[in-house]
Amino acid sequence: MTRRGPDIVVAGAGVVGAATALGLARAGLRVTVVEAREAAPWTAAAPPDLRVYAIAPASADLFAALGLWPRIVAARAQPYREMRVWDAGAAGELHFRASDAGGTSLGHIVEQGLLQHVLWQALQHEPNAEFRCPARVAAVLEDEDGVAVELDDGSRLRAQLLVAADGADSPVRAASGIEVAERDYAQRGVVGFVRSERPHADTAWQRFQPGGPLALLPFADGLASIVWTLPTAEAERVLALDDAAFGDAVTRAFDGRLGALRTASPRAAFPLRLRLAERYVQGRVVLVGDAAHVVHPLAGQGVNLGLADAAELVALLRGARDAGRPLGAPTLLRRYERSRRSANTLAAYTFDALERLFGSDAVVPTLLRGPSLALVDRVAPLRRFFLRHASGRAG
Ligand SMILES: Cc1cc2nc3c(=O)[nH]c(=O)nc-3n(C[C@H](O)[C@H](O)[C@H](O)COP(=O)(O)OP(=O)(O)OC[C@H]3O[C@@H](n4cnc5c(N)ncnc54)[C@H](O)[C@@H]3O)c2cc1C
C-alpha cells in the first residue's frame, strides 16, 4: 500500500525523535513518526523509571517552547541547585551553585519514561503528525524526488526527508551505509535508586575513582538516582550483590559523603561506548541523537546533545519551508551537519578525555587530577566555561 506522503518521516520516537517530530509538526510540516516499541504510559504512582536524565536548562527551554515543560515539572522533575565533583585519589573539589549561573537551578533530573510519555501524548493530539506505533522501519529506498520508507507491516511512506532518531544501533544509519568510529569503554553504567541517611541537599554529586565515576543525582521523595560506572566484570559483580551488600558497596564508593546509602529499587546496567557517525547526512537521510553520537555518561549530556540536534534541525527546516526551498536540499542538510557534528564531536572527546584523566591510576593523571579540579574551581573564566557547557548553552 502506498499512501500520500508526509513531508518528513522520523524513525524512532525516543526523547530525541519525538521532540524532533513534535517540533517539525508544530512548525507546520507534515510528519509521520515510526516507533518500534509499544507505549508504556507513565504514572506517578508506579515506581520511578530507572533511566533518568539530567535535563540541562537549554533542553528545558526546548520543552518549554513545545509547551510541555510545565506539565513535566508538575508531574515529577527534581531541580538540582548545586553540583559537587571530587576525586578519590586527590584533594580538591569542584563546587557549582545555581547562583553562579544566575539561575535558581543548574538543571532538573527527569525520568526518561515521563519525557517520552508527555511527548507521545502531544504527538497523538497533533494534527500535523501521524504516529505509527508499534511499527518498524524495515527498508529505505531513495530516488531523485524523495525517499521511500518501507515499514515491517508492508506499508510504504514517501517523504522529502527521513530523520533517523532510532538510537545507538540505528538500523537506518546502517542501511544508509554511514560508518561509525567507536571506542568500547569496557565499562557498564549501573543505575538504580538509593535512599541516603543524610538529605541529598538538591545537589548532583560525582566522585571519580579509577574504575569510573559514581554519580548520585537528587530525586523526589528523598530518593537519589545513581549512575555508577564500573569495568564490566566489576559491574556484573555488584549487580549480583544482595540489597544490603550493594548498599554497603555504593556507600563506600561514595566515601560515606551522605552517610549510609540503602538500595531502593531494582538495578540495571548499560554498556558504555563512544560512537560517532562519520557523516550526519546521506542523501535524504539525516541523523539525530544517539543515532549520530553516543557519549560517555559522566557529564550526563547524551540526551541534551540530541535535543540540541533536534532544535537546530527544526529551525533549519522551518526556515527552508518558509523560504519555499526543498527540505532535502544538500546545502541545507550540510549546514545542519557542520554545526551539530563539530559541537557533538568536541563534547564527545572532552568527556572521553575526562574519562581517561580521572579513570587512570597511572602516576601523571593522578598528579594532574587534584590541581585540575582546584584550578577549575578557583578560576572564574574556567568556571564559566564549564557552567556554559553543563547548561547546554555553549553553542
Ligand atoms: C547509564 C547511562 C546513563 C545516562 N545518563 C544520561 C543523563 O543523565 N543525561 C543525558 O542527557 N543522557 C544520559 N544518557 C544518554 C541517553 O540515554 C541517550 O543519549 C538518549 O537515550 C538518546 O536518545 P535517542 O532518542 O537518541 O535514542 P533512544 O532513546 O535509544 O531512542 C531510539 C528509539 O528508536 C526506536 N527504534 C529503533 N529502531 C527502530 C526502527 N527500525 N524503526 C522504528 N523505531 C526504531 C527505539 O524503539 C527507541 O524508542 C545516559 C546513558 C547511559 C547508558
TrEMBL record:
Domain of life the protein comes from: Bacteria
One GO term of the biological process aspect: ubiquinone biosynthetic process
Subunit-level organization: Component of the Ubi complex metabolon, which regroups five ubiquinone biosynthesis proteins (UbiE, UbiF, UbiG, UbiH and UbiI) and two accessory factors (UbiK and the lipid-binding protein UbiJ).
Coiled coil: none
Family: Belongs to the UbiH/COQ6 family.
EC identifiers of the protein: 1.14.13.-
Gene3D superfamilies tied to this protein: FAD/NAD(P)-binding domain
Keyword tags: FAD, Flavoprotein, Monooxygenase, Oxidoreductase
Gene Ontology CC entries for this record: ubiquinone biosynthesis complex
The species this protein was found in: Chiayiivirga flava
InterPro entries: FAD-bd (IPR002938), FAD/NAD-bd_sf (IPR036188), Ubi_Hdrlase_CS (IPR018168), UbiH/COQ6 (IPR010971), UbiH/COQ6_monooxygenase (IPR051205)
Phylogenetic lineage: Bacteria, Pseudomonadati, Pseudomonadota, Gammaproteobacteria, Lysobacterales
Pfam assignment, any one: FAD_binding_3
Pathway terms, separated by semicolons: Cofactor biosynthesis; ubiquinone biosynthesis
Protein name per Swiss-Prot or TrEMBL: 2-octaprenyl-3-methyl-6-methoxy-1,4-benzoquinol hydroxylase
GO molecular function: 2-octaprenyl-6-methoxyphenol hydroxylase activity; FAD binding
SUPFAM superfamilies (UniProt xref): FAD/NAD(P)-binding domain
Cofactor field: FAD
Keyword hit for Transferase: no
Chain ranges of the FAD-binding domain: 7-342
